[in-house]
Design goal:
Blueprint (H helix, E strand, L loop, with lengths): L15 E5 L4 H12 L3 E6 L2 H14 L4 E6 L5 H11 L6 E4 L17 H24 L4 E5 L22 H25 L5 E5 L8 H9 L2 H13 L4 H4 L1 H8 L8 E3 L10 E2 L9 H15 L9
Parallel strand pairs: 1-2, 1-4, 2-3, 4-5, 5-6, 6-7
Antiparallel strand pairs: 7-8
Helix pairs in contact: 1-2, 3-4, 4-5, 4-10, 5-10, 6-7
């Protein structure tokens, strides 16, 4: 049976999308393919040079694409608020929470949060809450898609140590941040159902896709052997960014997507066309979802007033 591809993306004309981390890898492919199908796309990127270069690359690869770069640093809540203020009052059909960091040495964000938790979860939590009015205004078809990872299976969220201050282990911190992504989608979906909103919240993961995410930490620390090891893994085992972006694009555009769906590759959760993916039972816990939501509101100062239940 033919798998789902970018040629199956429905017409996106008249729709506006925000894609975080759109300057490279999965985010770049996601933004390009949405623009190719007619969406107006905001490339939300931390680095201005890379963001503007991605803007030009998309225009070259998808003639007629309507894209623009806008600065967004998810490791700084002031930047998140400034980005959202720039879009205030605008209708928004798609928010793709794609940007992320992986397995970094211990460090903190501008607001003092452990970086993986702060960027991967809290930054996107705050961004979604601040952009919620525009998403709700868009009506049927509007979606929030948050990119998690199959590695969420390695660690659940510890509500008593969200910033891993007791004992930091980089891969556990990454897994917990990806579980937090799924818990966020679960609780957001519950609230959307309770308020009969048309907005749909779903999640996706790319499987094992070749991006610079794997090599960023070793390069940052000067661990050349580890960087080379990751490069070899990307070359021989990973699927391409084009294939890795398919679950995100499916979650964002396929008509059959439902609240709290989670999509990824079917073969060992590593590769293949998007399908509904297995997930850890703890990411479907209403209690854990409410706890994380309350903590996230307190830490970020962002409340989803329209969805309070």
């Amino acid at each position: 049976m033919k798998g789902w591809t970018t040629s199956d993306i429905p017409d996106q004309n008249g729709r506006t999308a925000v894609v975080t981390g759109a300057n490279s890898g999965l985010g770049f492919v996601t933004a390009r393919e949405l623009a190719r199908r007619g969406a107006q796309v905001v490339l939300a990127c931390r680095d201005a040079g890379r963001g503007k270069a991605a803007e030009e690359r998309i225009r070259a690869q998808a003639p007629g694409a309507v894209v623009r770069y806008a600065p967004l640093d998810l490791a700084d809540l002031a930047s998140v608020r400034a980005f959202a203020a720039d879009l205030r009052g605008d209708r928004l059909d798609l928010l793709i929470n794609n940007a992320g960091v992986m397995a970094l040495p211990y460090r903190t964000t501008a607001d003092g949060f452990e970086t993986q938790f702060g960027v991967n979860h809290l930054g996107h939590f705050a961004l979604t809450g601040l952009l919620l009015p525009g998403l709700l205004e868009a009506g049927p078809g509007a979606r929030v898609v948050t990119v998690s990872s199959f590695m969420h299976l390695l660690g659940t969220v510890d509500p008593g140590d969200l910033n891993m201050e007791r004992r930091y282990r980089r891969w556990v911190a990454y897994a917990r941040s990806k579980s937090a992504n799924l818990l966020f989608v679960h609780e957001l979906s519950r609230r959307l159902r309770a308020t009969d909103a048309h907005l749909v919240a779903a999640a996706a993961h790319p499987g094992y896709a070749s991006t610079n995410l794997q090599t960023a930490a070793p390069r940052m620390e000067g661990r050349r052997a580890a960087e080379r090891f990751m490069e070899l893994g990307n070359r021989f085992f990973a699927q391409s960014p084009e294939k890795g972006a398919l679950p995100t694009l499916y979650a964002a555009t396929a008509p059959e997507v439902r609240q709290d769906d989670f999509f990824g590759p079917p073969f060992q959760m590593w590769r293949g066309s998007p399908t509904r993916s297995a997930r850890a039972k703890w990411t479907l816990s209403d209690k854990a979802g409410r706890q994380l939501w309350a903590a996230s509101e307190q830490l970020t100062g962002v409340r989803f007033a329209a969805l309070e239940t």
